[in-house]
Amino acid sequence: MSDKPLWAKDLPLDMELHRFTVGADPVTDLSLLASDAAGSAAHARMLGETGLLPEPEARALVGALRDLRAQALAGELVIRPEEEDGHTALEHALEARLGTTGRRIHLARSRNDQVQTALRLFMRERALDLGEAVHAAAAAFLDLARREEASALPGYTHLRKAMPATWGMWGAAFAEGLLEELEALPALWGRLDRCPLGAAAGFGSPVPLARGRSASLLGFTRVQASPMDVMNSRGRHEQALAAWIVSAAGTLEKALWDLNLYSTEAFGFISLPDAFTTGSSLMPQKRNPDALELARARCRELRGLAGVLAHLAGGLPSSYHRDHQFLKAPFVELVAKGEELFRVTARLLPGLVIHREACEAACTQELHAAARACRLAAEGLPFRDAYVQVAKEIQDGTFVPEPAAAAGLQLERTGESLDASRAWIRDRRAAIDTAFESLFAWGNP
């Protein structure tokens, strides 16, 4: 077995240049190894079923790749420094197990469609993981809204008190905002649910392949038909998933800001759980909201990583270019950090302590001014006249507040919609698991 790159042609190799071209791949590709093994298994099985490889060899490849995938998922498969990427590590591992048979895996395949397939499988899996994490955060907001549905909270505009609200209204707002993101997930999934395997270097395979069979083996519902579009889509789907993550994080960012503000001594509306605060290195009395502040910063960090993807993917002509290699590291980082953000938030929310008396005391009489103006207008006074009258009452101290009608939060409907989104995620995951079980059952023990 050689440690040379898969593309080596026995020509001189400048090692400094080689290290530059390899970059971060030996680390980044660890996240893609399991997906690469699954894509390779589908390719090997398709070759065996179509007669392009002898069936015993194809079965041996699928069996070995099943074991390698399990090792990758357990974090036991490594990419050695002298191996340039996960493709090389995987092929070397196959050769070590199967000898010459391991070297047959690359028939009718390019590293271009190999990495696209691994990335597509990775994105598909991570989209479901992210969906579950966003669902967990949304459910935590909904639980808070149910628990504190009628608990008073001043509503603010311009960071100035505006109208009366409730913690139920606050929690429901973020549950619904994240639900909206979950309801957008199936459309994103539709973009990812197209198999690129068989596109080779972007111009199709020199030998006839059963691309539809490869797609079904991996649980895709269709093939990404144009081999040139497979290469052109490098970066496109990464940006689509990144945009979804950033949008959901943008919803969360406002909640994190509010909680930081409401937990200050000046507001005193809430206390954070001790496990989510840290102490000062100098001041013994301090408990700092580091988890909230870092989570808030994480939202901006995700936008920055998405910007890196946009810059790297833009400004290129069609087909594959080595520039695309640099997309992997920020994309894998963005996905991991996005999922972590939502899971941490879901763990934080149940531990919040709401100080109801402080919130009620902050709901001072003038917050009901709009309700009184609307009542006067409903009784026949033009609203602009009612507005002026109420303003005068506040100025001369004669204002008597009128309680506003309670907002219809429709918490049960939000809960039902969240349940439907979670069921969709579970159905997609079950379909993938079934496809993979069938794929790897074909391999030799």
From TrEMBL:
Keyword entries, A-Z: Amino-acid biosynthesis, Arginine biosynthesis, Lyase
Descriptive protein name: argininosuccinate lyase
Pathway: Amino-acid biosynthesis; L-arginine biosynthesis; L-arginine from L-ornithine and carbamoyl phosphate: step 3/3
GO cellular component, one term: cytosol
GO biological process: L-arginine biosynthetic process via ornithine
Catalysed conversion reaction: 2-(N(omega)-L-arginino)succinate = fumarate + L-arginine
E.C. numbers: 4.3.2.1
